[in-house]
Structures are given as C-alpha cells and as structure tokens.
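RECORD TYPE: inverse folding
INPUT: structure tokens
STRUCTURE:
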C-alpha cells in the first residue's frame, strides 16, 4: 500500500507543480505580476500546516502536493522579488499576517489539528474575493491551474484513506475550492458569460 500511496502522492505533487511552473515562467517573462505578499502568506499557511502534521503525526504521501505548493509559492514570491515584477497592495498584507498568525498559533499550541484548521479557515476566507470575482467575471479567472489543482487534490485525498483525519483537511478543502473555481471559469456559466461578453482566457490567481 505504501508503494501505491508513494506513486499517487508523487503524481499529485507533479500535477500541482506543473501548474506552478507555468505561473513561475509567466512571472519571469513578465506576463503576470504576482502579489508577493499573497504568495508569501499562502506559503506560510500551507508550510506551517505541513510542518505541524509531519511533526505531530508523521509523513504521509498525501502531503506531497502541499509540500510542492509551499515550495512553488515561495519560488514564485522569490522570482517576483528578484525580477522586480510584483504588485504590492495594502489589502494584501492580510495574507502575510494570517500566515504569520498561523506560525504563531503552531508555536503556541504545537497541535496539528488546531494549526491545520486555522490554515484551512484562513485560506478559505482569503479565497472569497477570488470566488466572487470568478462568479461575476469568469473569463478574468479562467486558468487550467484550477483543473490541475482539483486533480492533484483528488489524488491526495484518495490516499488519505486509512490514515489520521487531519491529513484529509487540506486536500478536501482544495478539492472544493479548485473544483468550484474550475466549474465557475470553465463550466456552463463561463461559456454563457463568454458568449455574452466575448470572454478571453485569463491567468488563475493561485494554482494550488
């Protein structure tokens, strides 16, 4: 079973990693101007949750996609800073503050459940504006990254069976979030919106 989980976990990591590589290349080419605080905040939320689970419960191959997402988020933030191609808005400080808050919570509690629940809830709150934008203007958020994120999360969720429930939290949330974004931006509603407005493809905010 461990061999099967390893293979599926690595595939899940490669799938989400490919989405972030696309985003990273587009950043370096100047096609996208990432919010550096957003990506740092996401990296801290996912990374702290990852560390809390590994330390508190042990490594499980479903964590591979979260590990790849954390590394990818840090790489995108670093590339944006080094290439001086980034956006910096006052509203984006909340991403970094919640990420630092997650680190502080884990330092205080040393509890994987508390830390991961906070990380998922914080991420979900931060995702609300993106979902709202996708509802209003599907073309502006259309990206293959949402589909890749959903596929990666489904794979990660599949190999959580038989393990501690804490491993389920992030993959389940990401299945719901990425699945909703894929449906909003690629589904019937998106096609109707594109037909009405002559929509075009955009770049996803967060390939995770």
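DESIGNED SEQUENCE:
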């Amino acid at each position: 079973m461990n061999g099967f989980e390893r293979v599926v976990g690595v595939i899940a990591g490669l799938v989400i990693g490919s989405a972030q590589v696309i985003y990273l290349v587009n950043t370096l080419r100047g096609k996208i101007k990432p919010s550096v605080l957003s990506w740092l905040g996401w990296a801290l939320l996912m990374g702290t949750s990852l560390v809390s689970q590994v330390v508190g419960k042990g490594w499980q191959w479903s964590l591979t996609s979260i590990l790849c997402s954390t590394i990818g988020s840090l790489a995108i933030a670093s590339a944006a800073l080094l290439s001086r191609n980034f956006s910096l808005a006052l509203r984006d400080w909340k991403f970094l503050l919640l990420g630092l808050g997650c680190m502080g919570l884990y330092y205080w509690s040393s509890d994987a459940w508390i830390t991961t629940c906070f990380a998922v809830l914080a991420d979900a709150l931060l995702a609300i504006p993106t979902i709202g934008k996708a509802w209003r203007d599907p073309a502006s958020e259309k990206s293959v990254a949402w589909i890749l994120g959903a596929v990666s999360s489904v794979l990660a969720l599949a190999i959580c069976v038989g393990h501690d429930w804490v491993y389920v939290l992030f993959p389940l949330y990401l299945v719901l979030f990425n699945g909703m974004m894929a449906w909003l931006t690629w589904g019937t509603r998106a096609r109707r919106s594109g037909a009405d407005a002559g929509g075009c493809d955009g770049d996803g905010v967060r390939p995770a």
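NOTES: Helices lie at 2-28, 36-57, 64-82, 93-109, 112-136, 144-158, 169-186, 188-197.
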